[in-house]
Amino acid sequence: MAEDIVRGGGLSSGLAVILNGEEEKENPSRSRLVSCFDDFGDQTVERALEYIFGLPHRSLGTITGPVDEELVCALIKNEMSTLNPIPSNFNSEREGISFENGCGSHVVGLEELSICGDIRIIKPPLLIESLAMFSSIRANVRVWKGKWMYEVVLETSGVQQLGWATRSCPFTDHKGVGDADDSYAFDGKRVSKWNKDAEPYGQAWVVGDVIGCCIDMDLDEILFYRNGESLGVAFHGIRKMGPGFGYHPAISLSQGERSELNFGARPFKYPIQGFLPLQAPPSANILATQLLSCLSRLLDMQSRERSNSFLAAKFRRLKRFVSLEELYYPVSRGICKVMFTILEAEMGSMEYIAWGSFLTFLLEVFRVQAPHEYLSLDKIADVFLEFRESQLVFEHLVNALSSACKTAPLVLTDCPYSGSYPYLALACHILRRQELMVLWWKSSDFEFLFEGFLSQKNLNKQDLQCMMPSVWWPGSYEGAAYEGSMMLTTTALSEAISKIEEKHKELCLLVIQFLPPSLPPQFPGSVFRTFLQNLLLKNRGADRNVPPPGVSSNSVLVSLYTVILHLLSEGFVMRGGTNGHNIGFLHRGGDQSFPVELFLKNDSYRTDISRLGGSVSHLSKSHPISDQEDEVIRWEEGCVDDEETRVTHNTTQKPCCCSCYDLEFSRTSKNSVRYAPRGSRVHCSPLGERSGHVAAECSTGSLNDEIVDKPSTSDQSEADFDYRPLRNLRIVPRESNMSCATLREEELLDTLLLLYHIGVAPNFKQASYYMSHQSQSVALLEETDKQIRERPCSEQLRRLKEARNDYREEVIDCVRHCTWYRITLFSRWKQRGMYATCMWIVQLLLVLSKVDSLFLYVPEYYLETMVDCFHVLRKSDPPFVPSAIFIKQGLAPFVTFVVSHFNDPRILSADLRDLLLQSISVLVQYKEHLAFFETNRTATQILPRSLLSAFDNRSWIPVTNILLRLCKGSLFGSPKHGESSSSSSLVFQTLLKETCVGDEDLFSGFLNRLFNTLSWTMTEFSVSVREMQDKYQVLEFQQRKCCVIFDLSCNLAKLLEFCTREIPQSFLSGTDTNLRRLTELIVFILNHITSAADAEFFDLSLRRYGQTMEKVNRGMILAPLVEIILNLLDGNVGKEGEDQNDVVGVFASMDCPDTVHCGFQYLLEYNWAACGRGDSYLGKLCQLETFLSLLITRIESDQVQTTRGRGETTDDDATCCICYTSEADAQFAPCSHRSCYGCITRHLLNCHRCFFCNATVLEVVKIRE
C-alpha cells in the first residue's frame, strides 16, 4: 500500500522558506514548517503535501516511501470526505421545482410540444433560432417556490421576449411570452416589459449581452439583469402557485433571431446571489474545483522556487532537499487521474467543469495581465494531455473560450488587457499545440467557434457611459481636467482594441499555417480558405436592409476584415518559409497580376453577387468565358497614369500610404475632439463619411428620396470609352505549377473587399450619422446658450434650460459614439491599408475596363468598396494626408476611372453610375481637387461631353451641381461677399463652350432637357407652396421639399445663365425655338414668384430652419433671370446687320403682356442691396429698365396693329392651331396634319408622333406658297 511506503525524501529546496514565509504573514507566532536550516529529521515532505492539498497541520503521518502517483491518489481518496463536503441543506434548497413529466432528476431542456412557429436548435445544447415570423417555446421545468434564474446569451439583438409563463399561457403566431395573464417578459429591442401590455423598462440590449431572468416566488417578483447589473424589479405581485403548477422559463423570437439558453448545465456568466440555477450543478464540481486549487498551489510553489533559484541550487548541492520538479510530476498526475475518474462517472460534469473551474484555473495560471505565465500553462497542458479523457475537457474548453469572447465586456480599469483579450491570448497559446489544433479542426463546430473568437461584444449607451465617464469636445464648458481624462480614456481603449486585434491576427495566422492531417494532403491556407468561403456563403444578403436569417455578427466581419487588411498591408509569413516578399502585398509595386478565375469561377458564395454587366447567368450566355478561366492579367503599376504625373511605389515620389505624413500633420490639423495625447502610441483619427452620403455635400443631394425618376436619355455609346492604350498590359496563361490549393494574397484581397462591403461599410455609415448629428446638436446647444444669455422671461428661460439639457445629452452621446468608432475603425495603419487598397483596386478596374469580356464580370462590390474607401479617407479629420496631395500622390487613377465610367453603358446598375457621378460632384466642390481635374488628360478630353449627355431625368441633379461648380462666377448673380469667378474653372468653361458649339445635336438635346427640367421643378415648387397655403400650416417634410426644389430651380437657372452668356447664338440665330422656350420659362418663373398671395408665407417656405433672409431669398432665382435677359441683349450688340432673332419681339409676343410687365417691374423694384448683392447690379438695372421701355413700346404697337386687323377676315386654316399666333407653314409626313414650324420643332424634341393623330412622324415638310 502506498500509505505504508517508507519515507525516502525531503522537502524540495526553498520550499520550507516559502511556506514558512507565507505562514508568518498570516500568523507570525505560529509556523507550520521549519526553515531549511533544520535538522534532517524534520518531516518536510508531509508538510508540503499538507499545504498542496489544504490539509490541517501535521495531519499526515510519516511517509515511508517515495511520493508517486499511487500515493497521491490514495491520499486524495482517504481525505475525500474533507475535500468534498455535501451541504446538509442541498436538497431542501431545491424544493419548489419539478419537471413537466413528473419524473425524478432530469436535464432541463425545451418542451417540443410547446413550440409555436418554427424554432430549431442550431447548436447543442440550447442555441436556438426562429425561422417563422414569430415563434415561442417554454422549458420542461416549472417553479412554484424559491428563487430561480436562467441566462440568455443574445446572438442577435432584435425583437425577443424573454421571461416566465404558466402552462396555460397561449402561444400563437402573433402572441408569445408576456402577451397574456400569468406571462411576463422583457424585450430589450423595444426596451419594454410585457404582461398583456407593454411598459417602458430596462435598457436597450446588444449582441453579446447576457440577460439574467430571475423569479422570486417568496416575494412574488420577477427581475431581469443585463450583464450582471440589475434592471430593477419588473413585476410585483405575480400570482402564487403550488405543486403541480408553476412558472416555466419561456422565450419568444421574431424571425432570424438567435439566443443561447443556459438553465444551469453550464456555470452562469453572471450568477446572481440568492438565485439558484434550474439545472443543479454536477456533484463532482466541488471536488474537481478543490483538486484544481491543489494544482494551483503546487504551481505557485514552483513559481516561488524559481524566484529563489540561488538558494534552491545551494541546498541541492548539499543534497539536503529534492527538487520540486520531482514532486510536481507525481502530484499533478495523481490529481488528474482522480479528477478524470470522478468526472467520467457523472454525465455532463466534464462540460460544466471545463466551462467553469477549469477555465478559471487556466486563466489564473496563465495570468490575465501580461507578462503571461507560459511555462506553468505548458506544464499543466503536458500533464492533462497524457490522459485520454482530457480531449473532451479541452474540446469543451475551446467552446468556453469562444463563447467568452462574445460576451466579455471592455472594462476601462482593466485596459489594455480587457474584453476578449485574456480568452484570445489563452486560446492562441494552447492552439499552438498540434494535437489541440487538430482537435478543434475536427470539431463539427469549428467554423462556429472560429467566429466566436473573432467576435467582440457590442456596446449600448450605458456601456459607453461607463467606459467614458468624462466627455469633452471643443467649445464645451468642461475644463482641462475633462479633456485630459478623455484623452487618457481614449488612449487606454485604443490600446485594448489594439491588443485584441493583435490576437485575432495571431489566431488567424495559426489557422492559415495549420496543415490538417487529411488525405490527400492539404496546403497552407486551405483551412482558412474554406472558412472564408463558408462565411461568405452564410452572409449572402447581409448588406440588405433586412438581412436573411443566420448571418454572422457584424463584429465578426469587421474583425476578419481587420485581420486580412493587416496581412495584406503589413505582410505575413506562410508556413515553411516566407512568401517571397519583405513588404505587404498592397505596397509592393512593380509588376502586378490578378487571376481572372476569381471573377469567372462559379463558386456557391458568388452565385448571387451582382456583376457590373448584370447577373452571372445572363453574362454566361451573352459573354461566355470558359476559355479564359486559366488566365492571369498582368500590368505594371502606374501604367494607367500619365508619365509626367505618375506616382508609384518604385518612383522617387512615393504614394501617400508609404510617405511620412503621419502624426505631426494630424496634430496641426483641425481636431473635432483631441482624443489622443501627444506622444500617444495609438493614434485615433476622426472617422470619414460613408460614400453613399457624398451627395449630401451638394446642395440638392437629399432630393433623391423625394423626386420620382423618369426614363434616362443618356446617349453615350461604348465607343466613347475606348481611351488611350495601357502600357505593359498583357493576359497570359496561369502558371501550370501554381497550386490552386495554396492560399493566395489575391484571394485575400477579393475577400477583403467583400467583407468591407457587407460588414465595415455599414459601420462607417452609422459613424457618419453620429458625426453629422453631433455637429447639429452642438450648433443647437450653442444657439440655446446664446438665447439664455439674452435673459428672456422666466417661462421661456425654463423651456430653454430644458432644451439645453436635452441638446447637451445628445452631444455627449454623439461624442461617445464617435470616439468609439474612431478607436475601432480608424487607427493609422488602417488608413494606410485602405489607401493602398484604393490604389490597387482602381488600377485593376482600369486595366480590366480595356477587356470587355472581363470588365463585365467584375463584382459590383469592387467598385462600391473602392469609392467608399476613397471618401472615408478623404473626409477623415485629422486628414490622413494633406488634401493637396491626397489624389495627386497615388489616387490620380481614381479621377480617371470616375470620369471615364460614370456614364459607361457596360455598368448595368444605374445606382453604381450615380455613385461615380456623385463622387465627381463632391470632388469638384474643392478647389484643390478641381485643379487636378483640370490637369487630368482623361477629364479634359471626355468630361464635358459626358456631362452634357448624362443630363437626363435620373442624373440631372449631380450633373447640375458639377456644371454649376465649373461655371459659377456670373456677374449679376454673385453675392457681395460670395465666390469670385476664380472659384470656377476657366479650363472647363472653355471646353464646355467648345463642345456645345462643335456638337449642335448634343447641345440641342441638353438644352431641351434643361428647359423641361426647370419647368418641372418650378411647377413642383408652386404646387407644394400652394398645398401648404391651403392647409394654413408649414409641414416639415413639405417645407424641406420646397427648399430643395427651390435650390434646384436656382441652379438650373444659373446653367441657363451660363449658356446665354457663353453661347448666345444658340438662342439668337436660326429658328427662334430656343429663344421662345427660354422666354416662356422666364415669364413662367416670374409669374410664380410675383403672384404669391401671402408674401411672408412664400418667403418662409424657401428657407430651412436656421437660414436667414440674406442667405435664402427670391433674389437667388431672380438674379439669374436678369442676367439671362441682359446676356441676350449683349449678344445682339454689334450684329444689327446679321439675321438675328428679335428678343424684344419674342417677349412682346407672349399672350400675357400684363404678366410680363409686372414681372419686369418687380425685377426693377426688388431690393437687391438687402439680399447681399454688390454694387454691380446698379448698372445692370439701368440696362433692364431700358429693355422694359422698349418692350412696353413694342407691346403697345402690337396691340394697335391687332386692333386694326380685327375687322379683316382671316383664314383659320392658315393659322397654327397650337399657338394661334403663327402661320401653319409646315406639315407632318405622312399624315399631312399642319402646324407652324416652331411648334412642330419643339414637339419633336420630346416626341416623334403627330400631336393630332399620334402617327409616327417620318418627315416634316415646309409648305411654300
TrEMBL record:
UniProt xrefs under PROSITE patterns: B302_SPRY, ZF_RING_2
EC number of this enzyme: 2.3.2.27
Domain named B30.2/SPRY: residues: 82-268
Domain of life: Eukaryota
Location of the RING-type domain: 1216-1254
Catalytic activity: S-ubiquitinyl-[E2 ubiquitin-conjugating enzyme]-L-cysteine + [acceptor protein]-L-lysine = [E2 ubiquitin-conjugating enzyme]-L-cysteine + N(6)-ubiquitinyl-[acceptor protein]-L-lysine
GO molecular function: ubiquitin protein ligase activity; zinc ion binding
GO cellular component: cytoplasm
SUPFAM superfamilies: Concanavalin A-like lectins/glucanases, RING/U-box
Pfam families: RKP_N (PF19322), SPRY (PF00622), TPR_RNF123 (PF25576), zf-C3HC4_3 (PF13920)
GO biological process, one term: protein ubiquitination
The keyword Chloroplast is assigned to this record: no
CDD domains, per database record: RING-HC_RNF123
Main enzyme class: transferase
Keyword set, alphabetical order: Metal-binding, Transferase, Ubl conjugation pathway, Zinc, Zinc-finger
Keyword Metal-binding recorded: yes
Protein name in UniProt: RING-type E3 ubiquitin transferase
Organism (species): Linum trigynum
